[in-house]
């Protein structure tokens, strides 16, 4: 697995990250997770928060003066949550009791 997730296709400038954050509905992102009772609710809450934070995390993973091990940890975190959000889009693939009802191949980053 490559630890370099900052490519031309997903490059983020301060302006694009700021525009992304400014168009978010922060009430949706900051809603208390205590209200999330089911696994589907919790996955949806995680997906919403991660989608909001992803451009910031990708930018942090690309900053050269941050130690390489730190960048690798952030990269693994982003890749793992990308897999999770792709596998559990809106909880559609969760069956009764939280067990997956369908298997999907995760979309892994190329490069």
Structural commentary:
The model is unreliable at 1-9 and 96-102 (pLDDT under 50). This protein has helices spanning 14-22, 26-29, 39-61, 68-87. The relative contact order is 0.18. Helix 3 runs antiparallel to helix 4. With 111 residues, the protein is mainly α. The protein has one domain (9-98). The chain contains 4 helices and no strands.
Keywords:
mainly alpha; disordered N terminus; 111 residues; 0% strand; 4 helices; single chain
N-to-C span: 8 Å
- In terms of DSSP E residues, the strand content is under 5%
Number of helices: 4
Major beta sheet, specifics?
none
Unreliable spans are: 1-9, 96-102
Percentage of residues assigned to helices: 40-55%
Number of strands: 0
Characterize the overall form.
globular
Oligomer: single chain
Q: List the secondary-structure elements in sequence, H or E.
A: HHHH
Count of domain modules? 1
Radius of gyration: 15 Å
Topology of helices and strands:
Layout: H1 14-22, H2 26-29, H3 39-61, H4 68-87
What's this model, at a glance?
The protein is mainly α and 111 residues long. Helices cover 50% and strands 0% of the residues.
